Structures are given as structure tokens and as C-alpha cells.
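Summary for the steering committee. One of the milestones for this cycle was to obtain a three-dimensional model of the protein with cobalt (II) ion bound, which we needed before selecting residues for the alanine scan. The sequence and ligand used are listed below.
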Amino acid sequence: MRIKDIKVFVCRPGRNFVTVKIITENDTYGLGDATLNGREMAVVAYLEQHIVPCLIGKDAHQIEDIWHYLYKGAYWQNGAVSIAAIGAIDMALWDIKGKLAHMPVYQLLGGKSRKGVRVYGHANGETIEEVLKNLGTMIKKGYKAVRLQCTIPNTKGTYGTMEGKKNYYELQGNRPLPPEQKWSTTKYMNFIPELFKQAREKFGYEIELCHDVHSRLTPIEASRLGKLLEPYKLLFIEDPVTTENAEGYKIIREHTNTPLAAGEKFNTLWDAKEMIQNQWIDYVRTAVTHGGGLTPLKKLADFASLYHVRMAPHGAPDLSPVCLMAHMHFNLWAPNFGVQEFIGFGTPELNEVFHYKVELKEGLLYMDDKPGWGVDFDEEAAKKYPYKRSYLPINRLEDGTLWNW
Ligand code: EZ4
Ligand code: CO
């Protein structure tokens, strides 16, 4: 089944998404998500200039060979831009294979390991009171796991929210350049345990809670945070320190039994290998999009399963519904699935462009069985929402030093 055409779309139904559509000689098409937050157009160029011309005429069924052709064959194997591009191609080919086989992709992986996908939602706020109010709403909606992020008092508009956008801290605003935020580790460390203490006092211990540190601590600070949070029994803390140096996680591990999650920025299995083999983390956060597609992610899952490490794919708002649906299939299959980050059912604009259906019942996300991923992309609707350059905030210490986001 030859590849006839590959189209790359950039649209902004609320925020920027890059979508790949591969069309075969019998007009079957498949979709992939190539969104790389704040660097979207680099991926578009990589796809259009360097990948698309090589794939026209190739057999769409040869997913494994095409993956290696794009990875090893490029000579420059890794890097976020190239991996997002390869990931989208790989996703689109799996979508096609599912459609040609008249099967949902999870069937091609070996079938379902569970009835639904456990998800965690987000509760954010500018005060503890506001976060807890949002947490209460999430629990009423049926969430069984929730991530809590809160603005740190006296560090205006920082972590957890973005000034004037109370409900989320990473929305892409109208500003053409990155907004700046301030960070104080001392204020953060003095505050965060109180957030979880109050959450437990109000809602008890049945609801699973987690927290994203966004790599803002050093290993010894993160060790202390993990210990301070032990009484509140978190599902995990995410990215307590940067992942470039895997051994940072060894230090944290030796000090605390608070579970650890990392890897939303891993591009390959090699990035994750040392942490997994040493059992320094409990959850791998790599998304199908940013991990290079389903082909490498199923290898990552199988490798992690040897070491009691579970999959918890990144599901932030900058991953499109195509990625969410790919995760549904991956998570239904992966024997060592843990939890899926899920930011909700989308805005009217988003749902005008991407057509998909998921349903939350008692903390689990369900979908209907459809061939491929079960998601569609409305090219006409997408034209109404043109791309606009925008960025995540950057983060500085109070003295101005540029810090980790
Ligand atoms: O900041 O996806 O766990 N979720 C996250 C995200 C990331 C963004 C970066 O593009 O850390 O919200
Ligand atoms: Co994260």
C-alpha cells in the first residue's frame, strides 16, 4: 500500500497544534500529532523539507522499517524536533494500519489489558482555597486522581497559574514573546506541604494526588520535599529535578519513598534506560508524540515492565487529541500502564477541528472501538484558526538568574 501524499497542518484552536496526515494510494489516511510547544514551525520544516520527499511511494505497511529509516537513516538520530516529526509519521502509519485491518490499534498491539484508562486531571489555583475548591469539583466529576499546582504566596503569578488566567498556568497567551515568571525555592518548599496537608484534611486519602515540580529543585532539595510530602501519600511527584543527569534521581530515591515520575522530555529509550534499570523512578512520562511514535513507545513500555516501572504518558494541553487517542490505545494495551494525564474534554474550538469521543466513568476514560486511532481532523475548520507564534513562560530566580521551567 503506497504512500501517495503527506500533508502537514498547523492550526491554533486555542493553542498551536501540528498535525500530519498521510494518504495512501487507495485514499486511506492516517493522522499523527507533531506538536512541539513553542517550536512548532521547526517540526513543520523538518517534516516538509526533509521527511515528506523521502516517503512518497514507500509502503505504508512497513512501519518498523520506516521508523529506522527516519531515525538511523538520518544520521542525526535524536533531538526533540526530529523525534516529534518521526513520531507523527509513525502515529499516522499505525492509524492507517488499523484502518486497513479494520481494527482499533490496541488490537494490533495484543489487545486490551484493562477495561478503561485511569486518568489524572488538574486542579490549579492562586490560593490553597481555590485549588481545593477546584479539586472538589474534579472529584464530583468522577476523577480519582488529580494533580495539584498552586501559586506560591508572594511570588506573583508564578507556578500553578498565570496572572489573569486563573484556570491554567501554561496557556499560550496573545503575547508574541515568552512571558517571564519568578521563582523562589525557599518560598516553594515552605508552602507546598501545606497545600497537600489541607487537601488530605478536607478530602481524605482515597483520592490520588500528584504534583509536578518542573525540574526546579536540586536533588537534595527534592529529597527533602519528598520526605515532607510522605505523610500525604502522593501518587508521585513529577520531574523533581532535571533529567539530563539521571543520577540526580538516585539521590532522591535514597532519601524518600514518595514515588517519582519523569520523562516527558525523553526522546528515546536511551534517555530513560539508566533511570529505569536502576529503578530510580516509578513512572515514565514519555508521550507517543515526543517519544517518536508508538513503535519506540511499546519498546519503552516492555523494557520498563522488567523493572516495576509503569507508563504515565504526558497529556498536557499542548498534545493534540490525536496524541490523546493514540495514548488511549497504548494505555489499554500496556501491561505496565499506570495513569494518563488528562486535561479534560476540550474547548468548542478544539472539538470543531478534532473529532474524537472519550467518556469518564468512575475515574476511568473510555472510547468507542473504531479502526485506527478513532480520531478525525477537519481541514476546513482548521483554516479558521491560523497559527500564531507563542511560547511557554520562562522562569527566573528572584535575582534574575534564568532557572528551569
Ligand atoms: O509544561 O507540556 O506534566 N505536564 C507538564 C506540561 C509541560 C508542557 C510543556 O510544553 O509538565 O504542562
Ligand atoms: Co510535567
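Key point for the committee: The longest strand covers residues 3-11.
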